[in-house]
Amino acid sequence: MEGAGEIRRGVAKPAVVQDVGNRRALRDIRNLVGEAPYACAIRKNKSGLHEHNTTCIARRPVTRKFAATLATKQQTSPQNERIGKENPEKKPESLLTSSNCLNICTDIEEDGTMVDEMEEMDQSGLKDVEMEDRILDSFPDIDSCDSNNPLAVVEYVEDIYSFYRKTEVTSCVSPDYMSQQFDINEKMRAILVDWLVEVHYKFELMDETLFLTVNIIDRFLARQTIVRKKLQLVGVTAMLLACKYEEVSVPVVQDLVLISDRAYTREEILEMLYLCEQEVLILNTLQFNMSVPTPYVFMRRFLKVAESDKKLELLSFFIIELCLVECKMLMFQPSLLAAAAIYTAQCTLQRCKCWNRTSEMHTTYSEDQLLECSRFMVDFHQNARTGKLTGVHRKYSSFKYGCTAKSEPAHFLLNADL
């Protein structure tokens, strides 16, 4: 057949290409076996054999180990093997001879210490990986118990929380944002949040709904000024939006009117919600960003790390809900708040400082980093019963929550050294 003996890039051309409609034969996409990975690395000589371009390859860093491997293996391309069979008198040249390898290494070493530096970098990289593997192996696998639970997403959980840590700053606001408001202040915000805690408890909503509600309120008030008459309406709307995002069953508008002690009419609440849907108020101000890492998502992960029981879990949530009421606690990131709440709860129950290496590794916070935040929490705990805002204390004083609020605060943390 005509053209059967012609060789182009190691593949025989077909004699006839059938014309099937508008289909055309695929072009050479340089994916053939033995094809040169770099255009300047190999070139053909007049005899059709491949010869090595030492000038071009010398620009690539070649270690002694790599050069010796190429020299001993004497790699040949399929094109040379085919030509060797057709013309046995001519022996295919090696892609890279030992003399060429020696010249390459000599040229690189004359120019500088590139080879040594590359070897040192490779060795240091391997040492770092080995060190990380040893560190991880020395800690218990907290997700092994959920290996058969598809909802635990064990394969991705570390990546998920790594993403949460990178993006949690987007959910934070300045602790002094109230200075931008002209008609409301921090005390009014505290009263609103304390009241919403009771509303949340009465409606038996999910824990994540409460944390998202407070986050929506803070992010909205940090960007939008309102009058005090509308503050409770903002809180009600924020809770309804959080319910739509987190809950399966959403409270009806008439229930919101009743819990507001009829301070707002059904029409006013619907008008507020309508404006939100029209991207004029809350959702427009927040740019529809409802997926933010609140302290709740970190609480769940860190409680698992701490191998918590029900008592530690309830006490940790009691402490962190006390922080929701206080505007100054906005100075701490959600992950730090969660870690400090669990640390404070552990100290409260065990009456001593305890923060093991496993908790420190998974939370990325040391005991010294948690101590400042923990002192605030102890102060809130000891004043929860006697203060003016007792919504959280009453909630956690019920039998449903194990009378957690009646536990003795960890006073010794107030005198601990930073």
From TrEMBL:
- Which residues belong to any copy of the Cyclin C-terminal domain? 293-410
Q: Which GO terms describe its biological process?
A: cell division; mitotic cell cycle phase transition; response to gamma radiation
What's in the keyword line of the UniProt record? Cell cycle, Cell division, Cyclin
Could you tell me which SMART domains the record lists for this protein? CYCLIN, Cyclin_C
Domain called Cyclin-like: residue spans: 194-277, 297-379
Bias (Basic and acidic residues): 82-93
Source organism's superkingdom?
Eukaryota
Stretches with biased composition (Polar residues): 71-80
**Which residues are the signal sequence here?**
none
PROSITE patterns attached to this UniProt entry: CYCLINS
| InterPro entries from the UniProt entry | Cyclin, Cyclin-like_dom, Cyclin-like_sf, Cyclin_A/B-like, Cyclin_C-dom, Cyclin_N, Cyclins_cyclin-box
**Record keywords: Cell cycle included?**
yes
Q: Which GO terms describe its molecular function?
A: cyclin-dependent protein serine/threonine kinase regulator activity
Q: Where is this region: Disordered?
A: 71-95
Q: Which SUPFAM superfamilies match?
A: Cyclin-like
Instruction: Report the sequence similarity comment from the record.
Output: Belongs to the cyclin family. Cyclin AB subfamily.
UniProt cross-references to PANTHER family, sorted A to Z:
CYCLINS
- Protein name per the record: Cyclin N-terminal domain-containing protein
What organism is this sequence from? Zingiber officinale (Ginger)
